[in-house]
Amino acid sequence: MNLQELVLNYKEEVVKSIQESVRIKSVQEEPLEGMPFGEGPAKALQHMLNLGKELGFEVENFDNYAGHIDFGTGSDEEMIGVLGHVDVVPEGKGWDHPPYEAKIVDGKMYGRGVLDDKGPTIAALYALKAIKDSGLKLNRKVRVIVGANEETGWGCMNHYFGKLNMPQPAMAFTPDSSFPVTYAEKGILHLMLSQEYNEELNFSIKGGVAFNSVPDSVVAEFPVSMRDSIFANLDIYNEG
């Protein structure tokens, strides 16, 4: 049996595992004892590590910051890395299906983390299971490194590679986003904009719940005195 046939045999298990993971709301919260990013990310991390153990791999949890799942043998200097994460950005509003239900509609699963990054990380684990079950011998160790704070600060990897000084893979990839390969990703910039205005000119702009996600809505409030100039500029924008 080839690897593709083996993977297809795991289809129901893969779907079930992704649904279990997505149903754990793992948005960063206030830290708790032993849970540096809150209860949700810690639970999601432990779920991923438990899955790795159930699939027959060696696992280790590093203070609920991050964990890794090992398969194969070989030196750390030649290790192949697979970098995933279990935390998610806030769900926002406007969902057609509940974001933490992992409901399947017309052959597609809907939920926060299905694509980024619980689903792809679990797919990588089952790919390793296919290699293991096939009897194929690897000359190098494969290590799936799982973070719990990728979305909002990278504290997971700062702890794992920085404080703990864990070995860097010789080569690695990230199973994050669309299949088969995303070879570039937009950057991220945190900035504050300010402008002085006449004291009588009061307005506000509010939108978004996280720096690294597109806002589901933005609300701007302007004084009535600016109405004509705003709509004039909107007409110019629409014509352009």
Protein architecture, described:
This protein is an alpha/beta fold and 240 residues long. The chain has a single domain (3-173), classed as Zn peptidases (Aminopeptidase), CATH 3.40.630.10. Helix content is 31%, strand content 17%. It has six helices and nine strands, in the order αααβββββαβαβββα. The protein has helices at residues 3-9, 11-22, 39-54, 118-134, 155-163, 227-239; strands at 58-62, 66-71, 80-85, 103-105, 108-110, 142-147, 171-173, 204-207, 218-221. It has a five-stranded mixed beta sheet with strand order 1-2-6-3-7. It has a two-stranded antiparallel sheet with strand order 4-5. It has a two-stranded antiparallel ribbon with strand order 8-9. β1 (58-62) and β2 (66-71) form a beta hairpin. α1 (3-9) crosses α4. It is elongated and about 75 Å long. It starts with a helix and ends with a helix. The mean pLDDT is 90.
Secondary-structure topology with pairs:
Elements lengths: L2 H7 L1 H12 L16 H16 L3 E5 L3 E6 L8 E6 L17 E3 L2 E3 L7 H17 L7 E6 L7 H9 L7 E3 L30 E4 L10 E4 L5 H13 L1
Parallel strand pairs: 3-6, 3-7
Antiparallel strand pairs: 1-2, 2-6, 4-5, 8-9
